[in-house]
Amino acid sequence: MALAALITFGFVLFEGIAGYYANSLALLTDAAHNLTDVLALALSGYALHLAEQPPHAGKTFGYHRVGILAAMVNSSTLVAIALAIFFQAYQRLQSPTPVAADILTEVATAALAVNLLTAWLVHRGSDHDLNIRSAFIHLLGDVFATLGAIAAGIGIWFTGWMWLDPGASILIGLLILWNAWIILAETLDILLESTPRDIDMDAVIADALAVEGVLGIHDLHVWSISRNLRLLSAHVVTADITMSEGARIQRELHELLAHKHGINHATLQLEFGQCSSDALYCDIRARARRHHQ
Asked: At 266, is the secondary structure helix, strand, or coil?
């Protein structure tokens, strides 16, 4: 990630100067986006460092959510960049200015190579860590942005249509917005402690009830600390059994949740009694009100 940030920053300086001399909004737009990639990579790298710190009394879950906050900041900056691109492109469309198509095409081609290299460097781990994925999306967005700039340069070269330059910038901005929304939606889900989208709650319940000795489940909660750290808590109703039998039930449930549903941290409270079917998902506020009455 550090190498990708260093390479990207060096190219930002070159692309910004080239965009200024070519009078190309597409190149200047891409340079600005690349600059935010440097900041995104730096922020993601720092978040990864913090996430490795051990938990303590003040942070019993550790610092895993730092990466989620970094992903949110990265996606928010993408939205701001897209809006700035739309504004600049609108002004260019109102009064088109000459663009050096040859410089635009050559520099954009070089940018494509740099963006492909940096995206490849950061790709590892992006499937399992939302923080790394947000940085990867930044870089992948640049790949498509430079493809748009190359297409604009070739189009201007052959047709002389100067509106292709701001037109390419608008397409780049739309792509950036789409990428930002994907990351932002997932970070909000995690911060709101929503059930992870790839977990089928009906299947979790059915599999748990199929474990021998489990009579019912209630007060069930599933949420995420980070993209690959899922947690579950539940009350498990059993018959009046021995402690060793209860330990066996807990062990089988832990193995089932980890291997079949990717939930590696489960807190299971065994209890003897009747399970109320309407209390499957606990209403914490209602319980708090009853406690204070």
From this structure: strand
**CATH class of the 201-292 domain in this structure:** alpha beta
| Confidence (pLDDT) at 222 | 93
The whole model's pTM is what? 0.66
**Residue 85: Cβ within 10 Å count:** 27
> How far apart, in Å, are the Cα atoms of 74 and each of 40, 181, 186, 289?
6, 11, 13, 39
Asked: is 2-191 a CATH 1.10.3720.10 domain? The reply is no
CA 12-17-19 angle, 5° bins: 90
**Ordered DSSP codes for 194-238:** PPPTT--HHHHHHHHHTSTT--EEEEEEEEEEETTEEEEEEEEEE
Provide the residue ranges of all domains of the chain, joining segments of one domain with +. 2-191, 201-292
> How many whole angstroms from its chain centre is CA 293?
42
Which of 175, 172, 179, 171 lies closest to 137, judged by CA?
179
Strands 229-238 and 265-272: parallel
Amino acid (one-letter) located at 179: N
Spatial strand order of the sheet with 216-226 comes to 216-226, 229-238, 265-272
- Those residues of the chain that have pLDDT short of 70 are 26, 33, 97, 125-131, 273-293
CB proximity list for 47: less than 8 A, separation 6 or greater: 66, 67, 69, 70, 131
* Residue whose structure tokens are 């979790």: 204
With a CB cutoff of 8 Å and minimum separation 6, the contacts of 129 are 48, 67, 226, 227, 228
